[in-house]
Amino acid sequence: MKKITVIDEKDTRSGFGAGLSELGKKNPNVVALCADLTGSLKMDAFEKEFPDRFFQVGIAEANMIGIAAGLTIGGKIPYTGTFANFSTGRVYDQIRQSVAYSGKNVKICASHAGLTLGEDGATHQILEDIGLMKMLPGMVVINPCDYNQTKAATIAIADYNGPVYLRFGRPKVPNFTPLDQKFEIGKALHLIEGTDVSIFATGHLVWKAIQAAEILQEKGISAEVINIHTIKPLDENAVITSVKKTGCVVTAEEHQMHGGLGDSIAQLLSRKLPLPLEMVAVNDSFGESGTPDELMIKYGLDTPNVVDAALRAIARKK
Amino acid sequence: MATTAELKDLCTQVRRDILRMVHAVQSGHPGGSLGCTEFFVALYKEIMHHNPAKFEMDGINEDVFILSNGHISPVYYSVLARTGYFPVEELKTFRKINSRLQGHPTTHEGLPGVRIASGSLGQGLSVAIGAALAKKLNSDNRLIYSLHGDGEIQEGQIWEAAMYAGSKGVDNIIATIDANGRQIDGDTDHVMPLGDIGKKFEVFGWDILKINDGNNIEEVISVLKEAKNHTGKGKPVLIVMKTEMGAGVDFMMGTHKWHGSAPNDEQLQKALAQLPETLGDY
What we know:
- The complex is a heterodimer.
- By secondary structure, chain A is α/β, with parallel strands linked by helices.
- Chain A folds into 2 domains: 10-175, Thiamin diphosphate (ThDP)-binding fold, Pyr/PP domains (Rossmann fold, 3-Layer(aba) Sandwich), CATH 3.40.50.970; 189-316, Rossmann fold.
- Chain A has 13 helices and 14 strands.
- Chain A has helices at residues 12-26, 38-41, 44-49, 61-72, 84-87, 92-101, 129-134, 147-156, 205-218, 236-246, 261-272, 292-298, 303-316, and strands at 8-11, 30-34, 54-56, 77-83, 107-111, 140-142, 164-167, 172-175, 189-192, 197-201, 223-227, 230-232, 249-256, 277-282.
- Chain A has a 7-stranded mixed sheet with strand order 3-2-4-5-7-6-12, with helices on both faces. In chain A, strands 9-11-10-13-14 form a 5-stranded mixed sheet, with helices on both faces. A two-stranded antiparallel ribbon of chain A has the order 1-8.
- In chain A, helix 1 (12-26) packs parallel to helix 8, helix 4 packs parallel to helix 6 (92-101) and helix 9 (205-218) crosses helix 13 (303-316).
- Chain B is built from 10 helices and 7 strands.
- In chain B, strand 4 and strand 5 form a beta hairpin.
- Helix content of chain B is 39%, strand content 11%.
- Chain B is globular, with a radius of gyration of 17 Å.
- Chain B has a single domain (4-273), classed as Thiamin diphosphate (ThDP)-binding fold, Pyr/PP domains (Rossmann fold), CATH 3.40.50.970.
- By secondary structure, chain B is α/β, with parallel strands linked by helices.
- The A-B interface holds A 31, 52-53, 55, 57-58, 60, 62-76, 78, 93-94, 96-98, 101-104 and B 57-60, 64, 66, 106-108, 115-120, 122-135, 137-138, 140, 156-157, 160-161, 163-164.
Protein backbone atom coordinates (compact mmCIF):
# COMPACT_ATOMS: atom_id res chain seq x y z
CA MET A 1 0.00 0.00 0.00
CA LYS A 2 1.18 3.46 -0.87
CA LYS A 3 2.52 5.23 2.17
CA ILE A 4 1.37 8.81 2.43
CA THR A 5 3.75 11.08 4.30
CA VAL A 6 2.92 14.15 6.28
CA ILE A 7 4.79 17.30 5.21
CA ASP A 8 3.86 19.32 8.29
CA GLU A 9 0.84 20.30 10.39
CA LYS A 10 -1.08 23.40 9.38
CA ASP A 11 -4.60 24.75 9.58
CA THR A 12 -6.67 24.76 6.40
CA ARG A 13 -7.80 28.34 7.04
CA SER A 14 -4.17 29.43 6.66
CA GLY A 15 -4.19 27.67 3.30
CA PHE A 16 -7.14 29.86 2.37
CA GLY A 17 -5.35 33.00 3.52
CA ALA A 18 -2.20 32.12 1.60
CA GLY A 19 -4.17 31.21 -1.50
CA LEU A 20 -6.19 34.42 -1.39
CA SER A 21 -3.09 36.51 -1.05
CA GLU A 22 -1.37 34.75 -3.97
CA LEU A 23 -4.52 35.05 -6.06
CA GLY A 24 -4.72 38.77 -5.31
CA LYS A 25 -1.38 39.25 -7.05
CA LYS A 26 -2.45 37.27 -10.11
CA ASN A 27 -5.98 38.51 -10.61
CA PRO A 28 -6.81 42.20 -10.12
CA ASN A 29 -10.55 41.48 -10.21
CA VAL A 30 -10.40 39.40 -7.03
CA VAL A 31 -11.79 41.32 -4.05
CA ALA A 32 -12.38 40.14 -0.49
CA LEU A 33 -14.96 40.91 2.17
CA CYS A 34 -14.89 39.99 5.83
CA ALA A 35 -17.38 40.33 8.68
CA ASP A 36 -15.06 41.16 11.57
CA LEU A 37 -13.07 37.90 11.52
CA THR A 38 -10.06 38.90 9.44
CA GLY A 39 -7.57 37.30 11.81
CA SER A 40 -9.56 34.09 12.22
CA LEU A 41 -9.96 33.74 8.44
CA LYS A 42 -6.28 34.61 7.85
CA MET A 43 -7.31 37.36 5.46
CA ASP A 44 -4.93 39.91 7.00
CA ALA A 45 -2.26 39.41 4.34
CA PHE A 46 -4.74 40.18 1.56
CA GLU A 47 -6.04 43.19 3.47
CA LYS A 48 -2.51 44.51 3.94
CA GLU A 49 -1.42 43.95 0.36
CA PHE A 50 -4.63 45.06 -1.36
CA PRO A 51 -6.37 47.53 0.97
CA ASP A 52 -8.48 48.98 -1.87
CA ARG A 53 -9.82 45.54 -2.74
CA PHE A 54 -10.64 44.52 0.82
CA PHE A 55 -13.98 45.41 2.42
CA GLN A 56 -14.43 45.17 6.17
CA VAL A 57 -18.21 45.05 6.64
CA GLY A 58 -18.39 44.64 10.40
CA ILE A 59 -20.67 42.11 12.07
CA ALA A 60 -23.23 42.18 9.29
CA GLU A 61 -23.11 38.98 7.29
CA ALA A 62 -26.33 39.53 5.33
CA ASN A 63 -25.01 42.86 4.09
CA MET A 64 -21.69 41.21 3.23
CA ILE A 65 -23.36 38.65 0.95
CA GLY A 66 -25.45 41.36 -0.72
CA ILE A 67 -22.43 43.61 -1.29
CA ALA A 68 -20.54 40.64 -2.72
CA ALA A 69 -23.38 39.97 -5.15
CA GLY A 70 -23.36 43.64 -6.15
CA LEU A 71 -19.60 43.68 -6.70
CA THR A 72 -19.99 41.06 -9.44
CA ILE A 73 -21.99 43.71 -11.34
CA GLY A 74 -18.85 45.42 -12.56
CA GLY A 75 -16.83 42.26 -13.07
CA LYS A 76 -15.33 41.69 -9.64
CA ILE A 77 -14.77 38.23 -8.16
CA PRO A 78 -15.70 38.58 -4.48
CA TYR A 79 -14.48 36.20 -1.79
CA THR A 80 -16.49 36.51 1.43
CA GLY A 81 -15.01 35.30 4.69
CA THR A 82 -16.58 34.40 8.00
CA PHE A 83 -17.22 31.29 10.09
CA ALA A 84 -19.12 28.50 8.34
CA ASN A 85 -22.20 29.01 10.51
CA PHE A 86 -22.45 32.70 9.66
CA SER A 87 -21.54 31.98 6.02
CA THR A 88 -24.53 29.71 5.46
CA GLY A 89 -27.35 29.36 7.97
CA ARG A 90 -27.35 32.99 8.99
CA VAL A 91 -27.49 34.27 5.42
CA TYR A 92 -29.25 31.46 3.59
CA ASP A 93 -31.88 33.60 1.91
CA GLN A 94 -29.34 36.23 0.89
CA ILE A 95 -27.24 33.51 -0.75
CA ARG A 96 -30.29 31.89 -2.28
CA GLN A 97 -31.71 35.00 -3.94
CA SER A 98 -28.86 37.45 -4.47
CA VAL A 99 -26.13 34.89 -5.25
CA ALA A 100 -27.42 31.48 -6.36
CA TYR A 101 -30.67 32.41 -8.13
CA SER A 102 -29.03 35.52 -9.54
CA GLY A 103 -26.13 33.38 -10.81
CA LYS A 104 -23.49 35.63 -9.27
CA ASN A 105 -19.81 34.80 -9.27
CA VAL A 106 -19.38 34.94 -5.49
CA LYS A 107 -17.02 32.66 -3.55
CA ILE A 108 -18.39 32.03 -0.07
CA CYS A 109 -15.40 31.03 2.03
CA ALA A 110 -16.21 29.49 5.36
CA SER A 111 -13.80 28.72 8.16
CA HIS A 112 -14.26 26.96 11.50
CA ALA A 113 -16.60 24.39 9.96
CA GLY A 114 -17.61 21.34 11.95
CA LEU A 115 -16.75 20.08 15.40
CA THR A 116 -13.05 20.94 15.24
CA LEU A 117 -13.86 24.55 16.02
CA GLY A 118 -13.70 23.11 19.52
CA GLU A 119 -14.30 24.99 22.73
CA ASP A 120 -16.72 27.63 21.41
CA GLY A 121 -19.37 24.94 21.32
CA ALA A 122 -22.42 24.14 19.26
CA THR A 123 -23.50 27.72 18.44
CA HIS A 124 -20.41 27.97 16.26
CA GLN A 125 -19.93 24.33 15.18
CA ILE A 126 -22.10 24.10 12.10
CA LEU A 127 -22.60 20.53 10.91
CA GLU A 128 -25.36 21.32 8.42
CA ASP A 129 -23.61 23.67 6.00
CA ILE A 130 -22.76 21.17 3.27
CA GLY A 131 -26.39 20.11 3.12
CA LEU A 132 -27.67 23.69 3.11
CA MET A 133 -25.36 24.72 0.32
CA LYS A 134 -25.56 21.65 -1.89
CA MET A 135 -29.33 22.01 -2.07
CA LEU A 136 -29.02 25.37 -3.80
CA PRO A 137 -29.26 24.93 -7.57
CA GLY A 138 -25.94 25.63 -9.28
CA MET A 139 -23.91 25.95 -6.09
CA VAL A 140 -20.50 24.24 -6.12
CA VAL A 141 -19.52 22.80 -2.71
CA ILE A 142 -15.86 22.18 -1.89
CA ASN A 143 -14.32 20.83 1.33
CA PRO A 144 -10.54 20.44 0.91
CA CYS A 145 -8.56 18.14 3.18
CA ASP A 146 -5.42 20.04 4.16
CA TYR A 147 -3.49 23.29 3.92
CA ASN A 148 -2.01 22.72 0.48
CA GLN A 149 -5.29 21.62 -1.03
CA THR A 150 -7.21 24.52 0.51
CA LYS A 151 -4.67 26.93 -0.92
CA ALA A 152 -4.91 25.32 -4.36
CA ALA A 153 -8.72 25.30 -4.24
CA THR A 154 -8.85 28.97 -3.20
CA ILE A 155 -6.83 29.90 -6.26
CA ALA A 156 -8.61 27.54 -8.66
CA ILE A 157 -12.18 28.65 -7.96
CA ALA A 158 -11.43 32.15 -9.32
CA ASP A 159 -11.24 30.58 -12.78
CA TYR A 160 -14.71 29.09 -12.45
CA ASN A 161 -17.53 31.53 -13.21
CA GLY A 162 -20.32 30.86 -10.72
CA PRO A 163 -21.14 30.61 -7.03
CA VAL A 164 -18.89 28.41 -4.90
CA TYR A 165 -19.01 27.39 -1.25
CA LEU A 166 -15.50 26.68 0.05
CA ARG A 167 -15.41 25.08 3.49
CA PHE A 168 -12.38 24.72 5.74
CA GLY A 169 -11.43 24.51 9.39
CA ARG A 170 -9.66 25.91 12.39
CA PRO A 171 -7.19 23.37 13.87
CA LYS A 172 -3.77 22.37 12.67
CA VAL A 173 -4.05 19.07 10.83
CA PRO A 174 -1.64 16.92 8.82
CA ASN A 175 -0.66 18.57 5.54
CA PHE A 176 0.06 15.79 3.08
CA THR A 177 -1.05 16.75 -0.44
CA PRO A 178 1.49 18.29 -2.84
CA LEU A 179 2.14 22.02 -2.57
CA ASP A 180 2.06 22.47 -6.35
CA GLN A 181 -1.10 20.39 -6.96
CA LYS A 182 -3.51 21.36 -9.69
CA PHE A 183 -6.96 21.65 -8.19
CA GLU A 184 -9.78 20.56 -10.44
CA ILE A 185 -13.36 21.21 -9.30
CA GLY A 186 -15.39 17.99 -9.27
CA LYS A 187 -12.42 15.65 -9.73
CA ALA A 188 -12.09 13.06 -6.97
CA LEU A 189 -8.55 12.09 -6.00
CA HIS A 190 -7.46 8.49 -5.51
CA LEU A 191 -5.11 8.48 -2.56
CA ILE A 192 -4.83 4.75 -1.90
CA GLU A 193 -5.76 1.92 -4.24
CA GLY A 194 -7.64 -1.00 -2.67
CA THR A 195 -9.98 -3.85 -3.48
CA ASP A 196 -12.11 -4.69 -0.40
CA VAL A 197 -13.85 -1.42 0.51
CA SER A 198 -14.10 2.11 -0.90
CA ILE A 199 -13.67 4.89 1.64
CA PHE A 200 -14.90 8.24 0.37
CA ALA A 201 -13.82 11.02 2.69
CA THR A 202 -13.91 14.81 2.66
CA GLY A 203 -12.19 17.57 4.62
CA HIS A 204 -10.49 16.65 7.88
CA LEU A 205 -11.76 13.07 7.59
CA VAL A 206 -9.51 12.35 4.62
CA TRP A 207 -6.47 12.00 6.86
CA LYS A 208 -8.42 9.79 9.27
CA ALA A 209 -9.45 7.61 6.32
CA ILE A 210 -5.80 7.23 5.33
CA GLN A 211 -4.92 6.19 8.87
CA ALA A 212 -7.86 3.80 8.89
CA ALA A 213 -6.63 2.19 5.64
CA GLU A 214 -3.25 1.54 7.32
CA ILE A 215 -4.97 -0.14 10.28
CA LEU A 216 -7.19 -2.16 7.94
CA GLN A 217 -4.13 -3.30 6.02
CA GLU A 218 -2.70 -4.77 9.23
CA LYS A 219 -5.95 -6.75 9.46
CA GLY A 220 -5.43 -7.99 5.91
CA ILE A 221 -8.03 -5.69 4.38
CA SER A 222 -7.31 -3.66 1.27
CA ALA A 223 -9.10 -0.33 1.50
CA GLU A 224 -9.35 2.21 -1.29
CA VAL A 225 -9.27 5.82 -0.11
CA ILE A 226 -10.69 8.55 -2.29
CA ASN A 227 -10.64 12.23 -1.42
CA ILE A 228 -13.92 13.82 -2.42
CA HIS A 229 -12.89 17.45 -2.09
CA THR A 230 -15.84 18.52 -4.26
CA ILE A 231 -19.14 17.33 -2.85
CA LYS A 232 -21.07 19.07 -5.61
CA PRO A 233 -20.74 18.37 -8.46
CA LEU A 234 -19.95 14.85 -7.27
CA ASP A 235 -17.44 12.84 -9.31
CA GLU A 236 -19.97 10.10 -10.03
CA ASN A 237 -17.65 8.14 -12.33
CA ALA A 238 -14.94 7.93 -9.69
CA VAL A 239 -17.45 6.69 -7.12
CA ILE A 240 -19.08 4.10 -9.39
CA THR A 241 -15.76 2.82 -10.75
CA SER A 242 -14.35 2.31 -7.29
CA VAL A 243 -17.46 0.71 -5.84
CA LYS A 244 -17.78 -1.68 -8.78
CA LYS A 245 -14.34 -2.94 -7.83
CA THR A 246 -14.72 -3.10 -4.04
CA GLY A 247 -18.41 -3.89 -3.58
CA CYS A 248 -18.95 -1.81 -0.44
CA VAL A 249 -18.64 1.74 0.77
CA VAL A 250 -17.73 3.93 3.73
CA THR A 251 -18.30 7.69 3.67
CA ALA A 252 -16.57 9.95 6.18
CA GLU A 253 -17.15 13.63 6.91
CA GLU A 254 -17.26 16.21 9.67
CA HIS A 255 -20.94 16.97 9.09
CA GLN A 256 -24.42 15.71 9.82
CA MET A 257 -25.34 12.39 8.29
CA HIS A 258 -28.39 14.14 6.86
CA GLY A 259 -27.41 16.24 3.90
CA GLY A 260 -23.70 15.56 3.75
CA LEU A 261 -21.29 13.68 1.50
CA GLY A 262 -22.61 10.28 2.62
CA ASP A 263 -26.09 11.36 1.71
CA SER A 264 -24.96 12.35 -1.80
CA ILE A 265 -23.12 9.08 -2.36
CA ALA A 266 -25.96 6.98 -0.95
CA GLN A 267 -28.36 8.72 -3.29
CA LEU A 268 -26.11 8.06 -6.27
CA LEU A 269 -25.54 4.41 -5.41
CA SER A 270 -29.16 3.67 -4.60
CA ARG A 271 -29.99 4.78 -8.14
CA LYS A 272 -27.09 3.19 -9.98
CA LEU A 273 -25.34 0.56 -7.88
CA PRO A 274 -27.02 -0.38 -4.59
CA LEU A 275 -24.40 -1.93 -2.32
CA PRO A 276 -23.65 -1.91 1.43
CA LEU A 277 -22.82 1.59 2.64
CA GLU A 278 -21.81 2.81 6.10
CA MET A 279 -21.53 6.44 7.12
CA VAL A 280 -19.10 8.13 9.48
CA ALA A 281 -20.88 11.37 10.31
CA VAL A 282 -22.69 13.10 13.14
CA ASN A 283 -26.04 11.46 13.70
CA ASP A 284 -28.71 14.14 14.14
CA SER A 285 -26.99 15.92 16.98
CA PHE A 286 -25.50 19.29 17.88
CA GLY A 287 -21.92 19.46 19.06
CA GLU A 288 -20.61 20.86 22.37
CA SER A 289 -17.53 22.43 23.93
CA GLY A 290 -14.33 20.41 24.11
CA THR A 291 -11.00 20.03 22.40
CA PRO A 292 -11.19 19.11 18.72
CA ASP A 293 -9.74 15.65 19.40
CA GLU A 294 -12.14 14.98 22.27
CA LEU A 295 -15.09 16.01 20.13
CA MET A 296 -14.08 13.90 17.14
CA ILE A 297 -13.87 10.88 19.46
CA LYS A 298 -17.13 11.59 21.30
CA TYR A 299 -19.13 12.17 18.11
CA GLY A 300 -17.71 9.14 16.32
CA LEU A 301 -15.58 10.86 13.71
CA ASP A 302 -12.20 9.38 14.63
CA THR A 303 -9.97 6.88 12.86
CA PRO A 304 -11.34 3.82 14.75
CA ASN A 305 -14.85 4.83 13.64
CA VAL A 306 -13.74 4.67 10.02
CA VAL A 307 -12.14 1.27 10.64
CA ASP A 308 -15.31 -0.06 12.30
CA ALA A 309 -17.48 1.28 9.50
CA ALA A 310 -15.29 -0.47 6.93
CA LEU A 311 -15.56 -3.77 8.81
CA ARG A 312 -19.35 -3.40 9.01
CA ALA A 313 -19.61 -2.60 5.29
CA ILE A 314 -17.44 -5.58 4.35
CA ALA A 315 -19.47 -7.90 6.62
CA ARG A 316 -22.64 -6.86 4.79
CA LYS A 317 -21.27 -7.85 1.38
CA LYS A 318 -23.06 -10.86 -0.13
CA MET B 1 -35.25 64.77 -23.93
CA ALA B 2 -38.93 64.11 -23.98
CA THR B 3 -41.51 66.79 -23.31
CA THR B 4 -43.53 66.63 -20.14
CA ALA B 5 -46.60 65.77 -22.21
CA GLU B 6 -44.73 62.85 -23.81
CA LEU B 7 -43.60 61.59 -20.43
CA LYS B 8 -47.13 61.82 -19.07
CA ASP B 9 -48.39 59.87 -22.06
CA LEU B 10 -45.81 57.21 -21.34
CA CYS B 11 -46.89 57.10 -17.69
CA THR B 12 -50.49 56.57 -18.76
CA GLN B 13 -49.50 53.77 -21.11
CA VAL B 14 -47.33 52.14 -18.44
CA ARG B 15 -50.30 52.22 -16.05
CA ARG B 16 -52.45 50.51 -18.68
CA ASP B 17 -49.73 47.86 -19.08
CA ILE B 18 -49.58 47.28 -15.34
CA LEU B 19 -53.33 46.83 -15.02
CA ARG B 20 -53.63 44.60 -18.07
CA MET B 21 -50.65 42.47 -17.04
CA VAL B 22 -51.94 41.71 -13.55
CA HIS B 23 -55.51 41.31 -14.79
CA ALA B 24 -54.45 38.74 -17.40
CA VAL B 25 -53.00 36.40 -14.79
CA GLN B 26 -55.20 37.52 -11.88
CA SER B 27 -52.12 37.99 -9.73
CA GLY B 28 -49.29 40.43 -9.14
CA HIS B 29 -48.88 43.78 -7.44
CA PRO B 30 -50.60 46.74 -9.11
CA GLY B 31 -50.70 49.16 -6.13
CA GLY B 32 -47.00 49.92 -5.67
CA SER B 33 -46.44 49.62 -9.42
CA LEU B 34 -48.95 52.37 -10.16
CA GLY B 35 -47.50 54.49 -7.36
CA CYS B 36 -43.94 54.25 -8.75
CA THR B 37 -44.80 54.82 -12.42
CA GLU B 38 -43.50 58.40 -12.55
CA PHE B 39 -40.29 57.37 -10.78
CA PHE B 40 -39.51 54.63 -13.31
CA VAL B 41 -40.39 56.78 -16.32
CA ALA B 42 -38.27 59.65 -14.99
CA LEU B 43 -35.34 57.37 -14.22
CA TYR B 44 -35.27 55.44 -17.48
CA LYS B 45 -36.27 58.30 -19.81
CA GLU B 46 -34.64 61.34 -18.28
CA ILE B 47 -32.09 60.53 -15.63
CA MET B 48 -30.00 57.43 -16.29
CA HIS B 49 -27.26 57.03 -18.87
CA HIS B 50 -27.95 53.53 -20.09
CA ASN B 51 -27.88 51.40 -23.20
CA PRO B 52 -31.11 49.42 -23.68
CA ALA B 53 -30.13 48.21 -27.14
CA LYS B 54 -27.04 46.43 -25.87
CA PHE B 55 -27.61 45.21 -22.35
CA GLU B 56 -24.45 44.19 -20.48
CA MET B 57 -24.64 42.66 -17.02
CA ASP B 58 -21.55 44.55 -15.81
CA GLY B 59 -22.99 47.94 -16.74
CA ILE B 60 -19.55 49.48 -17.23
CA ASN B 61 -19.79 53.23 -17.93
CA GLU B 62 -23.56 53.08 -17.53
CA ASP B 63 -25.81 54.07 -14.65
CA VAL B 64 -27.19 50.95 -12.98
CA PHE B 65 -30.58 50.50 -11.35
CA ILE B 66 -31.28 47.93 -8.63
CA LEU B 67 -34.90 47.18 -7.77
CA SER B 68 -35.08 45.95 -4.18
CA ASN B 69 -38.87 45.70 -3.78
CA GLY B 70 -39.20 43.19 -6.60
CA HIS B 71 -42.94 42.72 -6.27
CA ILE B 72 -43.53 45.89 -8.28
CA SER B 73 -42.23 44.00 -11.31
CA PRO B 74 -45.15 45.12 -13.55
CA VAL B 75 -43.98 48.74 -13.65
CA TYR B 76 -40.35 47.63 -14.01
CA TYR B 77 -41.11 45.34 -16.95
CA SER B 78 -43.37 47.85 -18.68
CA VAL B 79 -40.78 50.62 -18.49
CA LEU B 80 -37.92 48.31 -19.52
CA ALA B 81 -39.93 47.18 -22.54
CA ARG B 82 -41.06 50.66 -23.47
CA THR B 83 -37.52 52.02 -23.26
CA GLY B 84 -36.19 49.33 -25.59
CA TYR B 85 -34.79 46.52 -23.44
CA PHE B 86 -37.12 43.88 -24.93
CA PRO B 87 -40.22 43.81 -27.12
CA VAL B 88 -43.34 45.39 -25.63
CA GLU B 89 -45.26 42.38 -26.93
CA GLU B 90 -43.45 40.22 -24.38
CA LEU B 91 -45.39 41.91 -21.56
CA LYS B 92 -48.24 39.52 -22.32
CA THR B 93 -46.13 36.64 -21.00
CA PHE B 94 -45.94 38.16 -17.49
CA ARG B 95 -46.17 35.47 -14.79
CA LYS B 96 -46.97 32.78 -17.36
CA ILE B 97 -45.12 29.50 -17.80
CA ASN B 98 -41.85 29.69 -19.80
CA SER B 99 -41.69 33.49 -19.51
CA ARG B 100 -38.69 35.70 -18.88
CA LEU B 101 -41.09 37.97 -16.98
CA GLN B 102 -41.25 36.08 -13.71
CA GLY B 103 -43.56 37.16 -10.90
CA HIS B 104 -40.55 38.74 -9.28
CA PRO B 105 -37.60 39.93 -11.39
CA THR B 106 -34.72 37.57 -11.98
CA THR B 107 -31.54 37.31 -14.00
CA HIS B 108 -32.20 33.58 -14.23
CA GLU B 109 -34.21 33.74 -17.45
CA GLY B 110 -31.88 36.24 -19.11
CA LEU B 111 -34.25 39.21 -19.27
CA PRO B 112 -32.31 42.28 -20.49
CA GLY B 113 -32.33 45.10 -17.96
CA VAL B 114 -32.39 42.98 -14.83
CA ARG B 115 -29.12 42.59 -12.93
CA ILE B 116 -30.25 40.92 -9.70
CA ALA B 117 -33.16 38.83 -8.49
CA SER B 118 -35.40 40.48 -5.94
CA GLY B 119 -38.59 39.57 -4.17
CA SER B 120 -37.36 38.48 -0.80
CA LEU B 121 -37.15 41.95 0.69
CA GLY B 122 -34.32 43.92 2.19
CA GLN B 123 -31.45 42.71 0.00
CA GLY B 124 -31.23 45.33 -2.74
CA LEU B 125 -29.50 48.10 -0.83
CA SER B 126 -26.56 45.81 -0.08
CA VAL B 127 -26.41 44.79 -3.74
CA ALA B 128 -26.53 48.45 -4.80
CA ILE B 129 -23.63 49.22 -2.44
CA GLY B 130 -21.61 46.36 -3.94
CA ALA B 131 -22.27 47.63 -7.46
CA ALA B 132 -21.29 51.13 -6.32
CA LEU B 133 -18.02 49.83 -4.85
CA ALA B 134 -17.27 48.02 -8.11
CA LYS B 135 -17.77 51.31 -9.98
CA LYS B 136 -15.28 53.00 -7.67
CA LEU B 137 -12.73 50.20 -8.21
CA ASN B 138 -13.25 50.51 -11.97
CA SER B 139 -12.89 54.32 -11.86
CA ASP B 140 -16.33 54.40 -13.46
CA ASN B 141 -18.06 57.68 -12.62
CA ARG B 142 -21.59 56.53 -13.41
CA LEU B 143 -24.07 56.08 -10.57
CA ILE B 144 -26.09 53.36 -8.87
CA TYR B 145 -29.80 53.98 -8.34
CA SER B 146 -31.99 51.76 -6.18
CA LEU B 147 -35.62 51.65 -5.13
CA HIS B 148 -37.05 50.25 -1.90
CA GLY B 149 -40.49 50.00 -0.38
CA ASP B 150 -41.12 51.81 2.88
CA GLY B 151 -42.44 48.61 4.44
CA GLU B 152 -39.26 46.96 3.23
CA ILE B 153 -37.10 48.98 5.59
CA GLN B 154 -38.56 46.89 8.40
CA GLU B 155 -36.00 44.30 7.26
CA GLY B 156 -32.82 44.37 9.36
CA GLN B 157 -30.47 44.00 6.41
CA ILE B 158 -31.52 47.46 5.17
CA TRP B 159 -30.00 48.94 8.32
CA GLU B 160 -26.82 46.89 8.00
CA ALA B 161 -26.50 48.34 4.52
CA ALA B 162 -27.46 51.85 5.62
CA MET B 163 -24.76 51.73 8.30
CA TYR B 164 -22.14 50.51 5.84
CA ALA B 165 -22.87 53.07 3.12
CA GLY B 166 -23.10 55.92 5.59
CA SER B 167 -20.04 55.13 7.65
CA LYS B 168 -17.86 54.17 4.68
CA GLY B 169 -19.01 57.09 2.53
CA VAL B 170 -20.33 55.21 -0.50
CA ASP B 171 -21.23 58.44 -2.27
CA ASN B 172 -22.04 57.17 -5.76
CA ILE B 173 -25.41 55.72 -4.85
CA ILE B 174 -28.86 57.33 -4.95
CA ALA B 175 -31.36 55.16 -3.09
CA THR B 176 -35.05 56.03 -3.16
CA ILE B 177 -37.69 54.88 -0.72
CA ASP B 178 -41.25 54.64 -1.99
CA ALA B 179 -42.99 56.14 1.02
CA ASN B 180 -46.58 55.22 0.24
CA GLY B 181 -47.31 54.41 3.88
CA ARG B 182 -48.91 51.09 3.05
CA GLN B 183 -47.98 47.42 3.13
CA ILE B 184 -49.84 44.12 2.69
CA ASP B 185 -51.45 44.01 6.12
CA GLY B 186 -52.44 47.68 6.19
CA ASP B 187 -50.96 51.11 6.77
CA THR B 188 -47.32 51.09 7.85
CA ASP B 189 -48.43 53.15 10.85
CA HIS B 190 -50.61 50.25 11.86
CA VAL B 191 -48.29 47.34 11.00
CA MET B 192 -44.94 48.78 12.11
CA PRO B 193 -44.64 52.55 12.33
CA LEU B 194 -41.55 53.75 10.47
CA GLY B 195 -41.14 57.12 12.16
CA ASP B 196 -39.15 59.75 10.28
CA ILE B 197 -37.39 57.68 7.62
CA GLY B 198 -35.18 60.54 6.47
CA LYS B 199 -33.97 61.31 9.99
CA LYS B 200 -33.16 57.67 10.59
CA PHE B 201 -30.97 57.50 7.51
CA GLU B 202 -29.50 60.90 8.31
CA VAL B 203 -28.09 59.69 11.60
CA PHE B 204 -26.63 56.74 9.70
CA GLY B 205 -24.65 59.26 7.65
CA TRP B 206 -26.81 59.73 4.57
CA ASP B 207 -27.62 62.91 2.65
CA ILE B 208 -31.43 63.18 2.53
CA LEU B 209 -33.66 64.63 -0.18
CA LYS B 210 -37.44 64.59 -0.38
CA ILE B 211 -40.00 64.23 -3.12
CA ASN B 212 -43.29 65.56 -1.80
CA ASP B 213 -45.37 64.21 -4.66
CA GLY B 214 -43.83 61.18 -6.32
CA ASN B 215 -46.69 61.10 -8.79
CA ASN B 216 -45.73 64.51 -10.18
CA ILE B 217 -43.23 63.67 -12.92
CA GLU B 218 -41.74 67.16 -12.99
CA GLU B 219 -40.95 67.06 -9.29
CA VAL B 220 -39.53 63.54 -9.55
CA ILE B 221 -37.20 64.56 -12.39
CA SER B 222 -36.15 67.74 -10.64
CA VAL B 223 -35.26 66.01 -7.37
CA LEU B 224 -33.46 63.14 -9.12
CA LYS B 225 -31.39 65.70 -11.01
CA GLU B 226 -30.63 67.51 -7.79
CA ALA B 227 -29.66 64.20 -6.21
CA LYS B 228 -26.97 63.71 -8.84
CA ASN B 229 -25.38 66.94 -7.66
CA HIS B 230 -25.29 65.52 -4.14
CA THR B 231 -23.21 62.49 -5.17
CA GLY B 232 -19.43 62.42 -4.89
CA LYS B 233 -19.48 64.42 -1.67
CA GLY B 234 -18.67 61.69 0.82
CA LYS B 235 -22.22 60.63 1.63
CA PRO B 236 -24.71 58.23 0.06
CA VAL B 237 -27.90 59.97 -1.08
CA LEU B 238 -31.39 58.95 -0.02
CA ILE B 239 -34.61 60.27 -1.52
CA VAL B 240 -37.74 59.82 0.56
CA MET B 241 -40.43 59.86 -2.09
CA LYS B 242 -44.05 60.21 -1.06
CA THR B 243 -46.34 58.41 -3.47
CA GLU B 244 -49.92 57.26 -3.58
CA MET B 245 -50.30 53.51 -3.81
CA GLY B 246 -52.61 52.80 -6.74
CA ALA B 247 -52.05 56.28 -8.25
CA GLY B 248 -53.98 56.94 -11.45
CA VAL B 249 -56.96 54.73 -10.66
CA ASP B 250 -59.42 56.37 -8.28
CA PHE B 251 -60.72 53.24 -6.58
CA MET B 252 -57.22 51.85 -6.04
CA MET B 253 -56.00 54.90 -4.12
CA GLY B 254 -56.33 55.56 -0.40
CA THR B 255 -56.14 51.90 0.55
CA HIS B 256 -53.61 49.09 0.90
CA LYS B 257 -56.03 46.62 -0.69
CA TRP B 258 -54.48 46.75 -4.17
CA HIS B 259 -50.99 46.02 -2.94
CA GLY B 260 -51.14 42.48 -4.19
CA SER B 261 -54.49 41.86 -5.84
CA ALA B 262 -55.55 42.07 -9.46
CA PRO B 263 -58.69 43.76 -10.80
CA ASN B 264 -61.49 41.61 -12.20
CA ASP B 265 -62.91 42.24 -15.70
CA GLU B 266 -65.29 44.96 -14.59
CA GLN B 267 -62.72 46.69 -12.40
CA LEU B 268 -60.18 46.58 -15.23
CA GLN B 269 -62.58 48.33 -17.62
CA LYS B 270 -63.38 50.92 -14.99
CA ALA B 271 -59.66 51.52 -14.40
CA LEU B 272 -58.68 51.65 -18.07
CA ALA B 273 -61.47 54.16 -18.75
CA GLN B 274 -59.55 56.55 -16.48
CA LEU B 275 -56.35 55.99 -18.48
CA PRO B 276 -57.02 56.47 -22.19
CA GLU B 277 -54.59 54.61 -24.45
CA THR B 278 -51.69 56.80 -25.55
CA LEU B 279 -48.83 54.86 -27.14
CA GLY B 280 -50.69 51.68 -28.00
CA ASP B 281 -51.44 48.66 -25.84
CA TYR B 282 -49.20 45.60 -26.20
